[in-house]
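Good morning,

Both structures are done.
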Amino acid sequence: MELSQKDIDALWETHDEVIAIKNTLGNGNRGLCHDVKENTRRISRIEILLAFAAGGGGITGGIIGIQRLLGG
């Protein structure tokens, strides 16, 4: 089976689209995939800090102090 010029053109067009998608998503070093990984790490760090502050009484103690100042 031989490919017609129309088939070859369609393959090249698909190839170009795949390369564009690959460049947009990235390979973990750049692109959207890298951005998602960085944001996930950042959110995890924030969650850990908040959990530490709450566990250590920093947040809950501050809330109790504010309630007392407001007359609650």
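Second structure follows.
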Amino acid sequence: MNPEFYDLVERAIDVAFEEDKYLFRCYNYLQSAKTTRKQAREFIDSATANSVKALINDLEEYIKGGNKQLKEAYGHLGKPKARKIRSYLQGVLDDASRYEHDRRPGRKKRTK
């Protein structure tokens, strides 16, 4: 996977937190870049994806009323914004997994 993609994901996280904008669509980017299944799998297993998962878990704990440290870290967001960011970040990971799944070799299932 090219480093530009990882930079885009990191930038999307920053924009979501700072500017409250959710513009990056992972699936669309992977499609337009003609990313291979192997490259998508590399991202899913990467340190960047793992840090996104950790961030999602932290936001989840904060929303549930987590410990004092999480309240200090994410208290400025407010719970509605934290929920929105959490679902956006989860969507990025889900898009990568869906793309990787869609790129499996073999025949495509027909739609009826």
